[in-house]
Amino acid sequence: AAAMTMNADLRRERAAATFQPLLLTHILDGGPERTRRRKEIEALVLNDPDFQHEDLNFLSRSQRYEQAIRKSSLMVMKLREHGIADPEEIFWFKSFVHRGRPEPLDLHLGMFLPTLLTQATPEQQDRFFMPAWNLEIIGTYAQTEMGHGTHLRGLETTATYDPATQEFILNSPTVTSIKWWPGGLGKTSNHAIVLAQLYTQGQCKGLHAFIVPIRQLGTHEPLPGITVGDIGPKFGYDEMDNGYLKMDNFRIPRENMLMKYAQVEPDGTYVKPLSDKLTYGTMVFIRSLIVGDSARSLSRACTIAIRYSAVRHQSELKPGEPEPQILDYQTQQYKLFPLLATAYAFHFVGAYIKDTYHRISGDINEGDLSELPELHALTAGLKAFTSWTANAGIEECRMACGGHGYSRCSGIPDIYVTFTPSCTYEGENTVMMLQTARFLVKSYSQVSSGQQVTGMVSYLNDLPRQRIQPQHVAARAVTVRINDPVSLVEAYKARAARLVEAAAKNLQAELNHRKSKEDAWNRTSVDLVRASEAHCHYVVVKLFAAKLSEVTNAAVRAVLTDLCLLYALFGISKNTGDFLQAGILTSAQITQVNQHVKELLAVIRPNAVALVDSFDFHDVHLGSVLGRYDGNVYENMFEWAKKSPLNKTQVHESFHKHLKPMQAKL
Amino acid sequence: SVNPDLASERQTASFCVEKLTALLDGGAEQTRIRRAVVEAIQSDPVFSRENQYFQTQNERYEAAVRKAVHLQKKMHEMGWTENGPEYKYIYRALAGDVAFLLHRVFMRSISVLGSDKQIAKWIPLATQLQLIGSYAQTELGHGTYLQGLETTAVFDIATQEFILNTPKISAMKWWPGDMGRSATHTVVFAQLYIHGKCYGIHPFIVQIRSLQDHSLCPGITAGDIGPKMSFEAIDNGYLMLKNVRVPRENMLSKFCEVRPDGTYVRQGSQKINYFTMTSVRISLISDEVLTPLMKACTIAIRYSVVRRQSKLKPGEQEAKILDYQTQQEKLLPQLAAAYAFHFINDYLQELFDRGYREIQRKNFDMLPELHALSSGFKAVITHHCTAAVEICLRACGGHGYSLLSGLPSLYTKILASCIYEGENTILLLQTARFLIKCFMAASAGQPVPPSVTYLAAVKPGKCPAKNKSDFLSPDIYTEAYQHVAVRLISSTAAKLQDLIQSGAKKYNAWNQCTVQLVQAAKAHCHYITVKNFAETVEKLETKAGIQRIMKHLCDLFALHGIFSNTGAFLHDGYISAAQMDMVTASYLDLLAVIRKDAVPLVDAFDFTDKSLNSALGSYDGQVYQRLYEWAQKSPTNKMSPAYERYLKPLLHNTLSKL
Q: Cα dihedral angle (B90, B96, B99, B100), rounded to 10 degrees?
């Protein structure tokens, strides 16, 4: 196609910005050097003809899987050719190659290899690691079963030790115990790390991990005793062969149990592991990745919706004038700008968790795990909070693009279907919220019994003191200054404290009434989830506000401050009941908050396009006709549509098969 | 055999399921007819949806065309006619998976907008499927805002023809169903020009494909717009017109005519046409919005009593996930909403039938109210139900994400309803405009339409509830909803007045208040829904436990609305902080009550397994077995070329040279 110039609307938007997007990109990347390196790696991939292919929207599922496998195998080779070994750089490379999508080797690279490193004995590493590194062995991580997901203890697969042959006998005793969902299991992998209930000397020792060969090296046929396949079409994840695995008296040598920690000796004696806190570390790490993914996915959707809203003209604002950009409508700004602010907030939260994790995991190696429980509790909730919000936000962005958002050419349907399972995997969100709640309630009872708590929950320390003074609503409310991020952090803190206290008290009341702890917990769980949400919301506002002081460029700091205020105030306006009921804000202040939200929309409006440009998604990575950097939307929608499979022939075969015979008969 | 976990749920129903089904259908006779239609359709292999989840876009399209053609035959065989009592159930039985839906719109637009002569010419041909029609309104650059359409139709006196053109790319017709591959004709909406003067948007019948070989007519560029989130079976299309000439008689001319000499004549009232557009918004609610939500509830609730996870009590079996309060809190409000909207739909249908009779008597008084109600309710119901289906999807965890659960398809389909037939935000603003006008009129002591008379009787005060059981009184919560609606409408009206008095232009003031206006319109619709639900319950027969369970659902719907929007009720202190705790307590108590009847309440929707087409939601609850069997049918389980082409070289040491 002929080179097109930039759409005039977008050019005007970019010229009117009050700050330099590149400076903000540097902040998001963590420094100019990292931006440079990221773009260097991006160019390596984008300029490589081997990674080009047809638009995935027009391919069948099998074809998409095939493309993904092709690219994955090239990717592994090219990473080594280019000497890219830093985990972050591998992540960039991989996400440019696969354009932010899952791929069949994800579990091999992300779970199989790391699990070998952390849980295999040196002997096992010798046997498995290099072949796996060279992809002679492709592995996956088979944990979830058809009948069991988040609740690990319920898994039913068994591994029974047979001292006579020194083997484990693996079985899937019921339909519900069939391994279900692991990525790469269906068609790609020839090995799996299988989690199973270990039985030795007639006793169940709980879940343990086993390396199980599932397909014949050479022919790739399933081994006798193994039934394996693809679980069929899904909402998204077309390129991933999520699989099932059924084992019937399948034997593996004793040495295939991962035995760095727990062990089964040749005679069947079981040796307990020293600590199980280590597994926390992996979970924290993966959940921190999901927080980052929430930020990125929402940023992509915002980029598309905001650029398109600057290009699309519709209806009239002023009688007799040309149709305005839809981004000029207050209702459109109200849909999109709070999401833009949220995307920025989540970027900073993701960066915070990652940094904290790296700091603490340094300690883990030195044996100081004291901070791990809090981080574990916090990331569980933040994983749920950010993925729920981003999930809804992506849909809001799609809706804001009207009919064209519904077309796959917009790219947003794809972002949504790829992202939405993160509300479920690595811990179902409601369960995650309740884990955080457990920590909050525990902290609350510590405070109640006179102890001090530290870290993000330290606000609970203030509760007993507040209770001494009778609540004087009006007197407390005036202290909130709605133009000051720091003051808004205090308001969120007060809300969290109030909801944690309310949930803890309701839980106590249920305990006083009823018999079991579990029952009381269940009957309070809606309150507990609300408390966790309020806590996470507070943490996000706090981290966003804290970020502002780190920004040196005044223009960038100004625009980020607007976003931070919008994030905090919009959150209040969506949850006014909590702030009113607790007497943190008065009705008059709520009215001011609502008004100020609308004023901020107008303030942010001139910077909206520059703010999404700062996310710096390449068009190829964005995969959206509506969100193109140059804004030439309509011409390219037409070009795109012409490639649709239904347009392969001028007259569709259905005409000859069905329409014509019918018309002849009538 | 039925999974015992599901069977036990059915033994404890507090009401008669069959009676409730009849209530939903509008009588036992209707239930009988519906079941007969469903049975006739679903026992016919041509209409099977068994492989739907495994098919490509091309295969889905072909199957839909095949079904549409076969349906003609079937209707003839069964003696079903378009005016018969069976007709409305056919679409439900097919689950919408059939081509030529726009053909119906094509026919209706000719019947409504065409002259008697045009009707006599086109309708018989269309009825016989001698031609296949579509309806081309939206363009690449324009949707809801019709005046902005750019396609032109210029009258040429010399030849007595209209010359149709797509002057630029954004003017290309885009989205019309059946137009990409199937249609031979379409109704094109274009700006009419006579002697260089523009007369606005008018409809023209344009032939786009040959009736002989289906090739495109001269001057026509048309095709499929490419893959979408759903509607794989439908060939939504694009259309470009280059100097396409149609005879003068092809402009649909019931209301406007161009005479041979180029004189433009308006005739009759277009208000009836206006009425048609609003009634479409109501007519889509049942099949396109309520049915998917009811299906989603059926699937999610049945699955939630089959799925067991974690333990509620130590030493016991793992609990059904529906026994978790958080799961109840996700699903049961959606179930209550399905019933609430079912009843409001009945109310709206009745109102429209009455309106239609009035209009035929040339009385157009009800039009503004009907328009406002249809806009607002279309927006509120589609938005609420779309969100509800997504909640059902996510409440099914990982398995909900499988296409085999049926939930992703329900979701991607229902969410389109938020956009078509008027984008929701714009519709809510239309309702708001009506509400503000009525509020002003009511304040000035002028009469207002029945649905908004409450705006005249604004009474300040506080919620009188004293304990949590008071919130189970419909009077208490209906008043609370009314209070909030009045407050939001009146405060927005005041804000508008303020802005205008302080010198803002009217349109500017309006745009500055649109966020509030949208909230006000929603509050109005929410209030009417709650009020209607409460009134419906009051009138139900007390036998067979129906009224009692519906009362619980009504309470739940109302209290859930307060619980999830506490700020609106607390704002001016109408409900106090202490009362809000009572609302929460009452609401959570209700969840446990309705939990016991959850499965019978979805059974009452009476969907066959074939209608649900879900591995998770079948009547017998054999979830895991079915999931396993269906997965094995997936085409991905046939040998994939990926192994030979890519995996084999990969696994065979191509990399070991590294």
A: 70
Please give the mean pLDDT across all residues of chain A: 92
Q: A33-60, pLDDT tens digit by residue?
A: 999 999 999 999 999 999 998 899 999 8
Q: What are phi and psi of A163, to 5 degrees?
A: -65, -25
Fold of A137-273: Butyryl-CoA Dehydrogenase, subunit A; domain 2 (2.40.110)
On average, the pLDDT of chain B sits at: 93
* pLDDT tens, position by position, A487-525: 999 999 999 999 999 999 999 999 998 778 999 999 999
Q: What CATH number was assigned to the domain covering residues A283-450+488-613? A: 1.20.140.10
Give pLDDT, residue A275. 63
Q: Which residue has the tokens 């068009």?
A: A619
Give φ, ψ of A196 to 5 degrees. Answer: -145, 155
Residue in B143, B310, B565 closest to A402 by CB: B143
Is A144 annotated as a binding-site member? yes
The reported pLDDT for the residue numbered A475 is 41
What is the total residue count of chain B? Answer: 658
3-state SS assignment for residue B229: coil
Q: Which of B109, B128, B112 is nearest to B186 (CA)?
A: B109
Tokens of B331: 């699903």
pLDDT in tens, B582-611: 999 999 999 999 999 999 999 999 999 999
- Classify domain B131-267 at the CATH topology level: Butyryl-CoA Dehydrogenase, subunit A; domain 2 (2.40.110)
The residues in A 571-590 lying below 8 A from B, measured between CB atoms, are: 575-583, 587, 590
pLDDT exceeds 70 at position A106: yes
Contact A525 B401 (CB under 8 A): no
pTM of the model: 0.95
pLDDT (0 to 100) of residue B645:
80
pLDDT at position A470 is 45
Please answer yes or no on whether B402 and A413 come within 8 Å at the CB atom: no
Tens-place pLDDT, residues B269-310: 777 777 877 888 998 999 999 999 999 999 999 999 999 998
- Phi/psi at A162 (nearest 5 deg)? -115, 100
Is A637 at the interface with chain B, CB within 8 A? yes
- In A, minimum Cα distance to B562 occurs at A577
Q: Do A175 and B628 touch (CB under 8 A)?
A: yes
The CA-based diameter of chain B, rounded to the nearest angstrom, is 91
> In this predicted complex, what is the ipTM?
0.94
3-state helix, strand, coil in chain B (%, to 5): 60, 10, 30
* Number of CB pairs, chain A paired with chain B, less than 8 A apart: 363
Break chain B into its structural domains and give their ranges.
Answer: 131-267
Q: Give the one of A134, A526, A638 whose C-beta lies nearest to B325's C-beta.
A: A526
Burial letters A114-136, b for 16+ CB under 10 A, else e: ebbeebbeeebeebbbebbebbb
Contact A657 B62 (CB under 8 A): yes
Position B364 confidence tier, pLDDT thresholds 50, 70, 90? confident
Between the two ends of chain B, the Cα-to-Cα distance in Å is 57
HSE of B598 in the Cβ direction (CA atoms, 13 Å)? 33
Min mean pLDDT across A16-30, A368-382, B314-328 is at A368-382
Q: What are the E-state strand segments in A384-449?
A: none
Domain locations in chain A? 137-273, 283-450+488-613
| Contact residues for A244 (Cβ-Cβ < 8 A; gap 6+) | A146, A178, A179, A180, A185, A186, A227, A228, A229, A230, A231, B628, B631
- CB within 8 Å of chain A, chain B residues 438-497: none
Catalytic-role residue among B421, B538, B629, B644: B421
The B residues from 501 to 540 touching A (CB cutoff 8 Å) are 505, 507-508, 511-512, 514-516, 518
